[in-house]
Amino acid sequence: MPENPTGPTVSAVIVLAAGAGTRMRSAVPKVLHLIAGRPLLWHALSAAAAMRPEQVVAVIGHGREQVGEYLDQHHPEVRRAVQSEQLGTGHAVTCALTDAGQVEGTVLVTYGDVPLLTAETLKALVTEHQRAGNAVTVLTAVLDDAAGYGRIVRDAEGGLASIVEHRDADDEQRRIREINSGIYAFDGVVLTDALGRLTSANAQGERYLTDVVAIARGDGHRVGTLVTGDAAETEGVNDRVQLADLSRRLNARLVRRAQLSGVTVLDPANTWIHTDVQVGPDTVLLPGTSLEAGTIIGSGCTIGPETTLSDCRVADGATVLRSHCTGATIGADVTVGPYSFLRAGADLGARSKAGAFVEIKKSSIGAGSKVPHLSYIGDATIGPGTNIGAGTITANYDGDSKFPTTIGENVFVGSDSTLVAPVSLSDGAYVAAGSTVTDDVDPGDLAVARGRQRAVKGWVLRRRPDSAAARSALTAGAVPEPELPPQDAIAPDGRKNSAPRASVADSEVSGEDLPA
Ligand code: UD1
Ligand code: CA
Question: In 3-state terms, what secondary structure has residue 243?
């Protein structure tokens, strides 16, 4: 049996997850619905794994293809027992034990749809179970409204006598407010024996796991309870209202944990932290921040408001303002936003900047480099100390394939440039604003790749003679040309050209007004 340095020894944890979850009204099996960024089942399995049992067995039934696939991918170490027909919780545990073989020692039973149960509570349950020498120890809770639950029936001395299901209970039993959470510690041998003696002589025609209590007691074994202080820990999800409610309560727990570890959270009700997210001390989370699964944030950062970080790494001292980042690495003292979108593989070096309305995908930005405004950077490598002017686009996609852009250190790219990949700008290169760069630029060269500016003299006075622009031009000293070309003659009504109207592009600019 493996050593469990932090707690008592457990042989097996059986997680029941075969139920239909009809009230979710979903194509997705209930236990795969997410809470704090992970499936309900993940939460149950992580509490189970924290007990370091010899084995964890998930009982699956409804949606078992999807649940089995999820287990294959994320929890390959978990055994699965298939319960093809849901004949009751007792039958479900029988399926698990049939699969697991004879199990001695302490066996825990939990539910796949009870996500707030903590490993601490499970440990307390096992500790009490072993301390008291019980064959069965039931985790119970006291509720204001116990309707629907199995009730804890006690004997004259206050000891656990039996569990009676709501549907089988009489009026007096229904007034009992102490309920069965459905989470138990069993002695494996007693459990196996009692399961073989269950009948389905009850209101639901099911084999009730709860009947093991009375059977064990009848055989002279000790049975007992542990009353939980926090009933939320034992609550299950049956519909999406409960899903949202438990989501909020789990989030409150995760936010509180962050706060107690030194994170400032301005608006806890409006800040979402997924499970297993890490945030360093003296980081400030502003309202509307969501830190999603896989995110790790250093200390002294400012995140938000209205920012989502999903699967991101953020180093100390970074600021991420009103932005959406997924799969990004944000270095120390970097600033991001407002309104930026960092996608998978965006890797921002220390002290670099992705400013307002910047999208970066699969690109590394060197230390201290800046992409301050309105840019798209994709499949690019940018060295340190480089400045990318406003509106720069890496044209990385030809409609068929993606191509890389390589930009060296201390490069200056002028505003509104298009870098047509594959292309590289060597160290110390400059690009003139408005360039469309298609050829590599050598170290220290200035690339100018744009139409040369020219003036079409007197155009406004000829072609827009009565316009506000013409009046302003005259006031500013524009001189009307003495002779008008024939197609520019003013019509008799004084407002329209006599020639058919043509665009600037296909008449004057490309025609006789072109400078020599
Ligand atoms: C059960 C308990 C009840 C307790 C309540 C707590 C029994 C007979 N009753 O009630 O005392 O107060 O839980 O929520 O145990 N499951 C299977 N296979 C089955 C039946 C159920 O895997 O054949 C799983 C479900 O997926 C679920 C859990 O067991 O995760 C409980 O099933 P559910 O139907 O919700 O339990 P209840 O009968 O309402
Ligand atoms: Ca239930």
Answer: helix
